[in-house]
Amino acid sequence: MATIKRLGVLTSGGDAPGMNAAIRAVLLTAASYNIEVVGFKHGYIGLLEQEYKTLMPQHVQNIIQRGGTILKSARCPALQTPEGPKLAAATLHQLNIDALIVIGGDGSFRGALEIAKHYQGQIIGVPGTIDNDVDGTDNTIGYATAIDTALDAIDKIRDTADAFERIFLVELMGRHSGFIALSAGIAGGAEQIICPEFGPLSAEDLRRVLTPIQHAQLLMGKASYIIVVAENSYPGGTTALADALTKAIGIECRACILGHIQRGGSPVGADRILGSKLGAYAVEQLLQGAHLQMAGEVNGELSLYPLALTGERTKAIDPFLVRWQQQVGSA
Ligand SMILES: Nc1ncnc2c1ncn2[C@@H]1O[C@H](COP(=O)(O)OP(=O)(O)OP(=O)(O)O)[C@@H](O)[C@H]1O
Ligand SMILES: O=P(O)(O)OC[C@H]1O[C@](O)(CO)[C@@H](O)[C@@H]1O
């Protein structure tokens, strides 16, 4: 068993519902092994600027149901300078931190790998991002809640779209991936889903979107029609796409950008459970000597995955749902 007396923990990148459950599990598990936990604030900024506090059980009481992260999060460009990782490692050494747990996405894990080049202790990652774009785990903490939040919005937009028999484009988050768009689009009964995995969509290529709309109108007449669009799918964004479609078909298409609403809210049960499980597992695996690994869950089994491979983008959106959506999308 590795000797760990002091453990650091931080949340980095986009916050995700369930991060608090993971922090809580880290603290409670560590406490059960008499390990002290230091929480760094604002992601890697806390390491660079020595902004931290020792976490006690009372700090994690009554947080499992809260969105956001009690440690705050941030993007930290300073870690991407040559001096950043050295400074971060120096803080960890100075504070006698034997191991660090980074809760975040694959970008945060790249940062962890840079720090590891200068740090003598162990580092482990816990996947927390609404985007679900991290290899080595079926789901990331926050993804399930984001789907439900997006779904709630889609259902509400459907009501008004139906009343006015309007075409709506609903833009969902997912910087490089269509996980949220595909899942919420399928569950919300969207007529079309557009996401990066379907290939780039250009102004010259609008026919791909137009033909299914026209087909649906022939079949059903005037009716509500919802297109779920993953962010960054069209040059100029979803409002530009709605404008281009409006011009092309002569029927007003409305855009609704859901934005950061998807990052907030009370985590659903699945995210509380995943956060708790992965937070606890991360501590236990550190004690087993794990280093530069991510604590994930694959096919219901807890497992470690090399941090260096978490951003390879080998995890694909559900191919069955993709095929089915494309098959029925024009009906
Ligand atoms: N190559 C890198 N070198 C050093 N630090 C990095 C590197 N890539 C990312 N980081 C650090 O990790 C932080 C978070 O990364 P990023 O903004 O990509 O979010 P993420 O962890 O992927 O989460 P999300 O996708 O949910 O926003 C960055 O702000 C930066 O501090
Ligand atoms: O809040 P910010 O820094 O604009 O980041 C937005 C990005 O973060 C995420 O919410 C999580 O990675 C993405 O879906 C989105 O593109």
TrEMBL record:
<keyword id="KW-0324">Glycolysis</keyword>
<feature type="domain" description="Phosphofructokinase">
    <location>
        <begin position="6"/>
        <end position="285"/>
    </location>
</feature>
<keyword id="KW-0963">Cytoplasm</keyword>
<comment type="similarity">
    <text>Belongs to the phosphofructokinase type A (PFKA) family.</text>
</comment>
<keyword id="KW-0808">Transferase</keyword>
<comment type="pathway">
    <text>Carbohydrate degradation; glycolysis; D-glyceraldehyde 3-phosphate and glycerone phosphate from D-glucose: step 3/4.</text>
</comment>
<keyword id="KW-0547">Nucleotide-binding</keyword>
<keyword id="KW-0067">ATP-binding</keyword>
<dbReference type="InterPro" id="IPR022953">
    <property type="entry name" value="ATP_PFK"/>
</dbReference>
<dbReference type="InterPro" id="IPR035966">
    <property type="entry name" value="PKF_sf"/>
</dbReference>
<protein>
    <recommendedName>
        <fullName>6-phosphofructokinase</fullName>
        <ecNumber>2.7.1.11</ecNumber>
    </recommendedName>
</protein>
<dbReference type="InterPro" id="IPR015912">
    <property type="entry name" value="Phosphofructokinase_CS"/>
</dbReference>
<dbReference type="InterPro" id="IPR000023">
    <property type="entry name" value="Phosphofructokinase_dom"/>
</dbReference>
<dbReference type="Pfam" id="PF00365">
    <property type="entry name" value="PFK"/>
</dbReference>
<keyword id="KW-0479">Metal-binding</keyword>
<keyword id="KW-0021">Allosteric enzyme</keyword>
<dbReference type="InterPro" id="IPR012003">
    <property type="entry name" value="ATP_PFK_prok-type"/>
</dbReference>
<keyword id="KW-0460">Magnesium</keyword>
<keyword id="KW-0418">Kinase</keyword>
